[in-house]
Amino acid sequence: MDQGLKETLLAWYRATARPLPWRGEKDPYRVLVAEVLLQQTRAAQAAPYYHRFLKRFPTLEALAQAPLEEVLKVWAGAGYYARARNLHRLAQSVSELPRSREALLALPGVGPYTAAAVAALAFGERVGVVDGNVRRVLARFYALEDPSPQALWRLADALVEGVDPAAWNQALMDLGALVCTPRRPRCGDCPLSPSCRGREDPGAYPRPRRRSQKEEVLWALVLLGPGGVYLEKAEAGRYGGLYGVPLLDEKAFWERAKALGVAPRFLGQVRHELTHRRLRVRVWGARLEAPLEGLQDPSARPLSKLTQKVLGKALPLLAHEPVVSLPDAEA
């Protein structure tokens, strides 16, 4: 790509840049928070979580000093909670962020995208940033059907020569988000269109990835009693550090209900999509007469979006259910 075409794209970017809250930000910590959110969250959805997180944890030091449970609670709703856990670990491992992509990659939970984004946007290092939008733009511009990640990173790095790294990388991201979209790209509005090798058949570049999702059925047990809802803390896995109601297969569900001495009623079901799984959760519940160890106020605990959906289905219905007694041993 020649320098003249690069300047054309940068001029388009200056005229049409998305008004995102982290645009123009040079504070490395704030750039880091934004880019970690953007790993798995669309820009428009990430904005309120960005504001909320920085209001509570305005500096790397403030994040390091906070308990993990509070960090997860503030992150609640953004999903992919490993991102919050890794941010917390990172804050506790350094007093300030290093300035290079290579050094940033050595930090907990920082991958190639985040390291490059912080290095380029906050520190001005001449490195490319490859996200899904940039991958699509480069693949179409150069007519690459199935480019390897390594090839795309080398190409992105080479293109930063002669331009401001922050503006250039964000221009490519915006072009992919606004014009060179996955479906129905607006080639007529694209500043790179005259030189784009994939313009005649943009849907062929890059070759679409097949994404398969398996459906899984889980059974949720919601127990409402004096003092709150029965919640368990996950110690590891996707929801490590979060609280939730028991989510079990059918056999384990009835074993747990029998052990607790409750006969739950079916309340309905909720659906929830993960990256590679579709969950269909059958929600059962009971309203308890007596306290039970583990009853907690759910608003005081960090909950996954799935748990919030389950409680949103169950609690309004359980509020009108007759109470049931537990065996003395469990009360």
UniProtKB/TrEMBL annotation:
What sort of enzyme, by top EC class, is this?
Answer: hydrolase
Q: Single GO molecular-function term?
A: 8-oxo-7,8-dihydroguanine DNA N-glycosylase activity
**Catalytic activity reported:** Hydrolyzes free adenine bases from 7,8-dihydro-8-oxoguanine:adenine mismatched double-stranded DNA, leaving an apurinic site
Q: Which UniProt keywords apply?
A: 4Fe-4S, DNA damage, DNA repair, Glycosidase, Hydrolase, Iron, Iron-sulfur, Metal-binding
Q: Which residues form the HhH-GPD domain?
A: 37-178
What SUPFAM superfamilies has UniProt attached to this entry?
Answer: DNA-glycosylase, Nudix
In terms of Pfam families, this protein maps to: EndIII_4Fe-2S, HHH, HhH-GPD
The cofactor named in the record is: [4Fe-4S] cluster
Supply the SMART domains for this chain.
ENDO3c, FES
- The EC number(s) attached to this protein equal 3.2.2.31
> Which ranges form a coiled coil?
none
Biological process (GO) annotations held by this record are: base-excision repair; mismatch repair
What the entry lists under Gene3D superfamilies is as follows: Helix-hairpin-Helix base-excision DNA repair enzymes (C-terminal), Hypothetical protein, domain 2
Which CDD domains does the record associate with it? Answer: ENDO3c
**Homology family:** Belongs to the Nth/MutY family.
**Name of the protein in question:** Adenine DNA glycosylase
What species does this protein belong to?
A: Thermus filiformis
